[in-house]
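We modelled the chain as a single entity of 102 amino acids. Its sequence is:
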Amino acid sequence: MKKKPPSKGKKFPHFKTNEEMARFVEENDISEYMTAENLIPFNQIFEWENKDATITMRFPVRLLNVIKALAAKKRMPYQRFIRATMEERVASQIPQYIEKPS
């Protein structure tokens, strides 16, 4: 069953270009859009989406054993630990907060 995020706050309009978005930000008060109710940390954004894509990865046995040990220490399944670790790494490479999916 898919989780649904709470829907509060104004949604950003969709923009076709970066210039369009920049103009909107310059000409409007975006504080109504940038609230705790309508933003969540990026590393949690994927929790609201279906996990319908599957990948196969090959790991050295020692690395997989370390991953499993770290996951057990956090009391979580190792595959979830791998996904969470990947999400954290991606989040560190892009802006910290993005708009919730609708």
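As a brief sanity check on the tokenised model: The first strand starts at residue 39 and ends at 41. Residues 40-99 form one domain.
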